[in-house]
Design goal:
Protein name: 2-dehydro-3-deoxygluconokinase
Largest sheet: 9 strands, mixed
Oligomer: single chain
Bound molecules: adenosine-5'-diphosphate
CATH topology: UDP-N-acetylmuramoyl-L-alanine:D-glutamate ligase
GO biological process, one term: DNA damage response
Strand content: 15-25%
Radius of gyration: 18 Å
Keywords: Kinase, Transferase
CATH class: Alpha Beta
CATH superfamily: Ribokinase
Family: Belongs to the carbohydrate kinase PfkB family.
Number of domains: 1
Distance between the termini: 25 Å
Organism: Loktanella fryxellensis
Number of strands: 13
Order of helices and strands: EEEHEHEEEHEHHEHEHHEEEHH
CATH architecture: 3-Layer(aba) Sandwich
C-alpha cells in the first residue's frame, strides 16, 4: 500500500516548565495522520506532498520527516518562502495557538499539475484535509481537485477529512463549497460531527453521513468526540461508542490519529465497525498523552 498525504507541516513551539522556554517540534493535521499511518503500517510507503523553503529550518523539517520514515521525494523547495510556525500558549490548563503561516511555502504545494500527477502516480491512496484546501489559492485548489479526480478515475482512492477551520477561509460559504467539491472526488470522508453541525447545520451524525453519501461518497465516517461514531459504508450504517479515556490530557490530533487508525484497519481487511474501534483505540491513546505525535512502541 502506498499512501500520499497532502498538506502542511509546521514548526511547533511548545511551552516548557521554565517560563519563556519553548521546545521546537513539527506537526500539522495531515502530517499527524502520516506519522501514525507510518507506525501502524510498517510495510506501507507513506509519502508527504508539500512545499518547504530552502533554509536551515526547512532542511530540519525534511530531516524530521525522513527520520519518521516518511518519504519526502515529493516535497517541493521554494527559495522565496519558508515553513509556517505555531506557538502553543498555556493559560492555566487551557491551550491556545498563535499561527504564522500566511506566507508559508506549503501554500504553493499545488501550483504545478505535473508535480501533482507525478506524486499521485506513485500512490494507491491520497489523503488530504479541509486545511490542505484552505491554505491554497483558488486556482491551486481547483488544480489539486482536478488532478485528484483524474487520478481517481484511473483507480486511485481519495480519503478526505473536512477538518473545518473557518478562520483559514475568506468566508464560510467558500469553505463549505470547497469541502463539498473535495467530497465529490473522494471515496472516503472522515468528518467530525460538531464542526459539521456548526457549519452545515446537520442535526445529528446520521445527517452528516447522509449529506456526504448524497454527494456520492461511498464511505463516510463521522467522529463525535466521546459520543457514538458512525460509519455509513455502501448504504449500511454501523455505530460504535469510543471506550472511555480515563484522563484526557491533550485532545490535539484526536481526529488525525483516529483517521490513521481507521484507514490502517480498513487496509488490513477490518470491517467498518472494527475499524471504528481501531481508530478510537488509537485516538484514546493519543489524547491521554501530551503532544500530537506519539511513539506508539515507546
Ligand atoms: P476532532 O479532533 O477531529 O475534532 P473528535 O473530537 O470527534 O475529532 O475526536 C476524534 C476521535 O477521538 C473520536 O471519534 C473518539 O474516538 C476520540 N475521542 C475524542 N475525544 C474523546 C473523549 N473525550 N473520550 C474518548 N474518546 C475521544
Amino acid at each position: 500500500m502506498r499512501y500520499l498525504c497532502i498538506g502542511e507541516c509546521m514548526v511547533e513551539m511548545a511551552p516548557q516548565a521554565d517560563p519563556g522556554s519553548y521546545r521546537m517540534g513539527y506537526a500539522g493535521d495531515t502530517l499527524n495522520t502520516a506519522w501514525y499511518l507510518r507506525q501502524l503500517m510498517p510495510d506501507a510507503r507513506v509519502g508527504y506532498l508539500t512545499a518547504v523553503g530552502q533554509d536551515a529550518v526547512s532542511d530540519a523539517m525534511l530531516a524530521f520527516l525522513a527520520g519518521a520514515g516518511i518519504d519526502t521525494a515529493h516535497v517541493q523547495r521554494r527559495g522565496d518562502r519558508t515553513v509556517g510556525l505555531y506557538l502553543i500558549q498555556l493559560t492555566g490548563a487551557e491551550r491556545s495557538f498563535a499561527y504564522w503561516r500566511g506566507q508559508s511555502a506549503a501554500r504553493t504545494l499545488a501550483q504545478d499539475a505535473g508535480v501533482l500527477d507525478a506524486a499521485l502516480t506513485g500512490a494507491d491512496v491520497a489523503y488530504l484535509s479541509g486545511i490542505t484546501l484552505a491554505i491554497l489559492a483558488d486556482a491551486d485548489r481547483a488544480r489539486l481537485l482536478d488532478r485528484l479526480g483524474a487520478w481517481r478515475a484511473g483507480g486511485g482512492r481519495v480519503v478526505f477529512d473536512p477538518n473545518l477551520r473557518p478562520r483559514l477561509w475568506d468566508d464560510t460559504a467558500t469553505m463549505c463549497r470547497a469541502v463539498m467539491q473535495a467530497a465529490a472526488v473522494s471515496d472516503t470522508v472522515l468528518p467530525s460531527y460538531d464542526d459539521e453541525a456548526a457549519w452545515f447545520g446537520d442535526t445529528d451524525p446520521a445527517a452528516t453521513a447522509a449529506r456526504y453519501a448524497a454527494a456520492d461518497v461511498t464511505e463516510v465516517v463521522v467522529k463525535n468526540g466521546d459520543g457514538p461514531m458512525l460509519a455509513l459504508c455502501d448504504g449500511t450504517t454501523v455505530t460504535v461508542t469510543p471506550p472511555p479515556v480515563a484522563r484526557v490530557v491533550d485532545t490535539t490530533a484526536a481526529g488525525d490519529s483516529f483517521n490513521a487508525g481507521y484507514m490502517a484497519a480498513r487496509a488490513g481487511g477490518a470491517d467498518p465497525a472494527a475499524a471504528l474501534a481501531a481508530g478510537a483505540a488509537l485516538a484514546g491513546r493519543v489524547i491521554g498523552t501530551r503532544g500530537a505525535l506519539l511513539h506508539l512502541d515507546g
